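Private note to self, pasted from the team thread so I don't lose it. Backbone tokens:
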């Protein structure tokens, strides 16, 4: 059921046992984790948060820095959970997770970095984000929903125009502009987080889609060698939204990580 306590990021939770917190990317919301809420809740307590401005958190002020988004997640973890938790960060959520590991490693029991990378934006990529910001800030600006949605999934998934493509198109079309603008500014301004990888001392798994059109698979794959206790999982025929396109395979990667942690201590 939705969580609505004051001062916390809202979201949806299911299941019991060890807590796994899911942090979505840009420009979607907690509903992208439907397959994880239904699947992983059989083995753990799953909490799918909405970042500021998105979904159930549309009322929460939107920051424009990575540190600001990370602080909102950190405050929620402190308010809701008594100890460290497993955190799954997808894309922008992965950047937030790395910043959280850098600033507050004590709240993290294990990490899943999905369809993300550690490097900062190139100057070209940064300018492209700012160009999108200018479009979104212009009341007459026409944001290209189709192109954005198409880039989030594998080419074959988009060509099929099935339920996944329709879901992604709807998520992008309904994303609040304020949330998108804040996220784009935060992503464009984020630092190089590569040094954080070597500092991760908890079990980790890196997941990527072999047909990710937004983050080259070599960048995701390269993180595995830099994180001491990590494993890599590449999912064939899947794009940027691996959790949505291949939920069973994605869930298996998370479940295997939970197995590595052993029984939950009372």
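Design output:
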């Amino acid at each position: 059921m939705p969580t609505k306590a004051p001062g916390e990021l809202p979201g949806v939770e299911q299941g019991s046992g060890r807590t796994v917190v899911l942090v979505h990317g840009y420009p979607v919301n907690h509903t992208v984790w439907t397959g994880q809420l239904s699947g992983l809740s059989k083995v753990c307590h799953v909490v799918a948060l909405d970042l500021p401005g998105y979904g159930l958190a549309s009322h929460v002020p939107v920051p424009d820095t990575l540190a600001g988004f990370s602080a909102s997640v950190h405050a929620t973890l402190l308010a809701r959970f008594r100890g460290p938790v497993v955190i799954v960060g997808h894309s922008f959520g992965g950047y937030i997770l790395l910043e959280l590991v850098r600033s507050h490693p004590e709240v993290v029991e294990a990490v899943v970095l999905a369809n993300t990378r550690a490097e900062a934006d190139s100057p070209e990529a940064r300018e492209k984000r700012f160009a999108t910001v200018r479009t979104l800030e212009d009341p007459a600006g026409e944001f290209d929903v189709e192109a954005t949605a198409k880039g989030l999934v594998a080419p074959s998934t988009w060509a099929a125009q099935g339920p996944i493509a329709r879901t992604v198109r709807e998520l992008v079309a309904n994303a609040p502009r304020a949330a998108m603008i804040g996220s784009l500014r935060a992503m464009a301004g984020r630092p190089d987080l590569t040094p954080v990888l070597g500092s991760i001392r908890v079990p980790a798994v890196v997941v990527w889609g072999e047909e990710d059109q937004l983050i080259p698979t070599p960048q995701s794959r390269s993180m595995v060698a830099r994180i001491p206790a990590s494993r890599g999982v590449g999912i064939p025929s899947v794009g940027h939204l691996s959790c949505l396109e291949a939920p069973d395979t994605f869930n298996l990667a998370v479940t295997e990580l939970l197995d590595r942690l052993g029984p939950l201590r009372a």
